[in-house]
Amino acid sequence: QAKELGRGEFRFFSDNMNKNSAARVRLESDLRRAVAEEGFVLHYQPKLDLETGRFSSMEALIRWPHADGMVSPADFIPLAEETTLIVPLGAWILRRACLDAVALGERLGQVPGVAINLSARQFRQSGLIDSVRTALEESAILPEKVELEITESMVMDDVEAAIDTMQALRALGVRLAIDDFGTGYSSLSYLKRFPVNTLKIDRTFIRDLTRDSEDAAIIQAVIALARALNLHVVAEGVETQGQLVFLGEHRCASVQGFLLARPGPIESMPALFSKGFT
Ligand code: C2E
Ligand code: MG
Ligand code: MG
Ligand code: MG
């Protein structure tokens, strides 16, 4: 059972698709085949640097072209996690994103930053460090160009183990970001201990910021916190000019969202990166 969302781009499989339903069994076998055949594509959404007015990096967002339509990562990443298919899939994403960034850099004369989302299981799995190292080596990308996005909930079940993993990743030279910041349960004392470079303010705070003074206050506080801790700060889900103006006035370093650019195939990046946002 599927329902259409958004501009008909995705089919969302509904919650009642339980473990044994026929739809789920089929989706699982399709997913297994897609992983084996590398039947995925990465789309990219650039991030605009508000100081320079230029796009300087991009986030990889996986897409699965499926016979039933595009399946959203919100639906198949959890399934990939349950089935452990996330391990080979995650390794493919890391490698593909690094290779794409290097190829784009050859066209632009400068390699853009590339942000890659990690999933919870991928983050906990012991092979993660090796798969990151392999992606860096095979693409020959400068490690500091790569930023791995993790969420607070991924690190909170075992904070000490998570800090070890984060340190091992930083030792490879890559950057770390906390995605969807503000929606999880990490405390400020943990934030101080996490060796991260970037906070991405969750889009639920951005959505109503021009109408909701509490959201606006939270955003200002997160920007101030990031500055005090020497962290880069990105606002995600920027859809309106009013939001962009607010974020610029409050010195948010980078912004990302449909207003600036929707996620698109790598082929659409050169035009964006060479033009900037006007
Ligand atoms: P996320 O990392 O927080 O990614 C942002 C999501 O918001 C993306 O949805 C993006 O298309 C969407 N978005 C961007 N700008 C706007 C905007 O202005 N308004 C609105 N309403 N939405 C916006 P997407 O691509 O469906 O991804 C959903 C989530 O799935 C991601 O959230 C991330 O957690 C996960 N995901 C996506 N790609 C990957 C991947 O390669 N690996 C892993 N592990 N997870 C991924
Ligand atoms: Mg993300
Ligand atoms: Mg996010
Ligand atoms: Mg999000």
From TrEMBL:
<protein>
    <submittedName>
        <fullName>EAL domain-containing protein</fullName>
    </submittedName>
</protein>
<feature type="domain" description="EAL">
    <location>
        <begin position="24"/>
        <end position="277"/>
    </location>
</feature>
